[in-house]
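Q: Got a minute? One more chain.
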Amino acid sequence: MENISNEVRSQSIKAFQSTIRKCENALTKMSLQGSNTTLLTKRLKALQVGLAMLETAWNQTPHPYTDEEIAEARLVLTGLFPSLHNSFDKAKPGSPQRTLLERRIRAMELADEAMNQLDGN
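A: Always. Here it is, folded:
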């Protein structure tokens, strides 16, 4: 985790922040529509934990999450990899969407690595 460039660190944090905002907006919209928000709420929490893990690993900032919350977030985030990779494969090379997906995937991989290190695995 120490060998990650400042540029990749910045992009990863921004990718998480962007994804969190997107989920928050979707959650608000779904709540107003009366839709079931359980899955989205779970994903939002996992994204928030993932961001906190990156900030903990890189900036030594404390996080408020329990080991159980981290373990659950890790499962949720790794569960998103297949759909992210599928979307990435379908995106046109050089497109903004492909770049965004590439950064999100990298950010989530780094968060998974940070969670793994905190777990001692």
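A: The longest helix spans residues 6-33.
Q: Perfect, thanks.
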